[in-house]
Amino acid sequence: MKRVLLLPTVLLMLVGLPATGLAQLNDDWQELKGIIDIHAHVGPATDLSLPRTFDAIEIVQLAARHGMRAINMKQHYLETASWAYLVSRVVPGIKVFGGIALNRSVGGLNVNAVEQVATFKGGFGRVVYMPTFESEYSNLKTPERAVPVSKDGKLLPAVGEILKIVAKYDMALSTGHSSPAESVMLVKAAKEAGVKRIFVQHPIMPRVGTPGSSCNAVSAAVASEMTGAAVGCWNSGTDARALRSASTAAGRQWAG
Q1: What is the CA radius of gyration of the chain?
Q2: C-alpha atoms less than 13 angstroms from C-alpha of 229 in its C-beta half-sphere
Q3: What is the domain partition of the chain in residue ranges?
Q4: In angstroms, rounded to a whole number, what is the distance separating the alpha carbons of residues 185 and 131?
Q5: 211 pLDDT band (50/70/90 cuts)?
Q6: Would you place residue 225 in the very low, low, confident or very high pLDDT band (cuts 50, 70, 90)?
């Protein structure tokens, strides 16, 4: 159970290391053995995204070296199922997956793009992320950049079609950088559509989540998807317990 609780913070610890850190890690990192990283930002990124410390091959080599069970690679503007296939040919001994974030570069709420990733040979397309950097909630002052998922308190029809695909191909859904209220709606709709793996992303990060609403979504979801944040919803004891309980589920169901 302890290893699973470490899962939300592993990525940030790894990708925050300088390049020389690859050679510096030692047996003190045995805690990583057997865990699954569901949120691994990898390079190279586009000039319009954020720079990453490691490229896809390097981060998977690092994960394999320390006995991790699986890793899911994420990009904000590119699909990574094809990356996962290629990296898996180069780095043995670890399961590698990818997905698609529904930002403008892939057509936003693009049902066809989601199904293309879902049907990628070998099942390497594992996660669908609702809009992240280009979510409406993250672009309140720049609506021209936004990819809305809801209107007037209801999810858009395209979201429902995407959830059907996620359920059909047994993929995972991440709420992305949606608002807390949208995350609650997404979790409810995903469950109704038959989605088995649901992650509320960054539930306690101020620019995405809030202490109350996000924890409500997490308690209803399969797991929270955190990167380097302390487990718990600020100082709320009850909500923190719910968040911890939800977090422990992530590693149990992920890689099959």
Answers
A1: 17
A2: 22
A3: 2-253
A4: 15
A5: very low
A6: low
Distance CA 240, CA 234 (A): 8
For the residues of 122-154, what is the DSSP string, one character each? TS-EEEEEPPSTTBSGGGTT-GGG-B-SEETTE
**Which one of 1.10.10, 1.10.287, 3.20.20, 2.60.40 gives the CATH number of domain 2-253?**
3.20.20
Cβ neighbors of 20 (< 8 A, separation 6 or more) are none
pTM of the model: 0.76
Give the pLDDT mean for 68-97: 95
| Separation CA 64–CA 61 (nearest Å) | 5
| Cα–Cα distance, 135 to 176 (Å, whole number) | 8
CB 114 within 8 A of CB 126: no
Nearest to 209, CA basis, from 175, 242, 238, 241: 175
Beta strands in 177-230 (DSSP E): 197-201, 223-225
